[in-house]
Amino acid sequence: MIKNIDNLEIKNLENGQIEIKGEISWEAFSSFEKKALERLLPHVEVAGFRKGNVPEAIAKKELGDELILSDMAELSIQEFYPQILEEKKIDAIGRPSVTITKLARENALGFTITTEVLPEITLPNYKKIAKDAPKASSVSVSEEEIDKVIEDLRQMKAYGHVHHHDDHDHAHEEPLPEVNDEFAKSFGAFESVADLRAKIKENTLKEKEQNEKDKRRISIMDSIIAEAKFIVPSLILKSEQEKILAQIESDVTRSGIEFEEYLKHTNKTRESIAKEFESEAERRARFQMCINAIAKDMDFKTTDEEVKAEAEKLMQMYPGADLARTTAYADMLLTNEKILSTLENL
Questions:
Q1: Last residue of a domain, one of 60, 85, 117
Q2: 139 SS3 class
Q3: CA-CA distance, 283 to 305, in Å (whole number)?
Q4: What is the pTM for the complete model shown?
Q5: Domain of residue 66, CATH code
Q6: Secondary structure of the chain: what % helix, strand, coil (to 5)?
Q7: CA distances from 76 to 114, 159, 299 (A)
Q8: Is 109 helix (H, G, I), strand (E, B) or coil?
Q9: Are strands 109-117 and 92-102 parallel, antiparallel or unpaired?
Q10: Which among 40, 45, 6, 36 has a CA at the least distance from the CA of 24?
Q11: How far is it, in rounded angstroms, from Cα 127 to Cα 109?
């Protein structure tokens, strides 16, 4: 029971929302009058007094009791709403909708709050799913694959780009450089062609192994998501759509085209693009929600030090990025990597 909150009622609504009704005692409600006046008084203007220096009695009369009580109500909800969420273990998301149902001096403050909440996610036996998933295939690198990379490097040296056989618009007559130790040295700390070929083999092998690892992780998560039971809240779905739209806009702008021009040329709108990627947005949302549910089930939490270090790396890569968002993104990246790594090694 939360002190100073009476008649608390919580009701499940449709579409992943809940309704919280209750009353804040007059004793607690009235304690916010001083703070409300501190916020309001500097803005009061009365003839004969400098702004911000109006005597409190005159200022209160000028403001009116309804405005003062309304500000007190806002401050009260800001104070008690988080307490309700914590006490009742409610995973609220987004901005709540608040309606004041009773507002009068010497009376309790009546309120109704509507908010979206994270749904209960019924996870399958994710540990068994991960254990039973096919292991990553072993990989190798052939001499032909190394030759192909060497050939591409020769073309990059001669033409400035790789010339594909079907690229008839860019025919070249320039001779390709000879593959010798001087050629190898031109690409960095390589003493010989053998050194260069060894590095190409090492890098290609790492890339193939990572691809196989990623394929197995996706397979495990796809199986878990397919058996997990939950509804994606509209707020989270919309958030994922906005992320996809922001990425598309960033890619288009980087290519040197104004996004509005792109929309005009493709005969699309922001809304139509968001709709087009709705299924992808839902897939991403389901993935992240399942990862978070598994992290909660495993009682896994990132440390402040880990998140700070990761956020600092990201800020160096993307100077000017919003620190709060970058920190949240860093937390998500670390959580995802830990959970995926744990699952693939079960």
A1: 117
A2: coil
A3: 31
A4: 0.73
A5: 3.30.70.1050
A6: 60, 10, 30
A7: 16, 69, 33
A8: strand
A9: antiparallel
A10: 6
A11: 49
67-71, 82-86, 163-167, 308-312: least confident range? 163-167
Domain that holds residue 39: 5-117
Q: Does one domain contain both 84 and 141?
A: no
Q: Residue 339: inside a domain, yes or no?
A: no
- The answer to whether the CB of 158 falls within 8 A of the CB of 174 is yes
Residues 99 and 14 in one domain: yes
User: Which secondary structure element, helix H or strand E, spans residue 152, and what is its range?
Assistant: helix 143-159
For the record, the structure tokens of 204 come out as: 């290609």
Express each pLDDT in 96-143 by its tens digit: 999 999 999 999 999 999 999 988 899 999 999 999 999 988 999 999
- In the block, tokens 């060894």 appear at 198
Domain ends where: 228, 247, 275? 228
Measured CA to CA, the distance from residue 292 to residue 31 in angstroms comes to 39
The answer to whether the beta carbons of residues 335 and 300 sit under 8 Å apart is yes
Q: Report how many domains make up the chain.
A: 2
The alpha carbons of the chain give a radius of gyration, in whole angstroms, of 30
CB contact at 8 A, 321 and 105: no
Whether 25 and 71 share a structural domain: yes
Question: 112 forms bridges with which residues in the sheet?
Answer: 21, 99
| pLDDT tens figures, 151-192 | 999 999 888 888 776 666 666 777 899 999 999 999 988 999
